[in-house]
Amino acid sequence: MMQIQLNNRALLRLSGSEAESFLQAQLSNDITQLSERGVQLSAYCQHQGKILALFWVMRQSGDFLLSFPIGLLDTILPRLRMFVLMSDVSIKDITNEFLQVGHIDTTADNAHAINQRLAVEIAALESVTNIEFSNKSEWDKVCIETGLVEVVQETSEKFVPQMLNLDIDEVGVNFNKGCYPGQEVVARLHYLGKAKRRLFSFKSEVALTIGDLLYCESSKSARASGVVVSQVKCEAEFLCLATLEVAHKDDLITLNSADGAVLTRIEHE
What we know:
By secondary structure, the chain is of the alpha+beta class.
């Protein structure tokens, strides 16, 4: 059994009679469809539709848990609390009270399934004292292989959901639910436009950093053609998820400049 300590993630507990309706009004996915043992990806957007944080949402004993990269905690927690107003909703930071344990290609009685290969268990501290954890790079590798994207401090407010493929099969956006911050922008792009930038996986022979830019000489865009969203070293090469202009997905892509290292797109079709 491969288990990984996900100690780079914050954890919030939302409780109260209006916790579900509060999340339904704040997040991009339909909270009412969240199962007891599933993880729902849901974007927390600002009014322009850019993602502030991408949550793993879970149910637990009538409450809701939000898991997300810990670097965003000091920004996200006060922002969520600001919108509680007079609602019967309590938001508590329980990051230091539990461990988040990732499971790869295994099932655990208390784990919440993220996708077909990954699950996360919210474990009491005393229950994991004798576990020998695997290297976190194994988790990061499978995240890239399965397209499980993250939004971290460096990439917060950089992407609309479509850029991270969250609209595909409505994995992270539900287009039939009610309003939430940024909903008009996200819906307009879905119904009236077409995403010009999407998420792809790449491999490289040189080290990558989150926030690195993808450069395509054939592009006429005034901005970079894409951005590295996540990365991991895998034996002698590096793997990453990155946004890229869809029109140039088959063109020569280099890192940060025309003279940068060549990135090779990994085709999963």
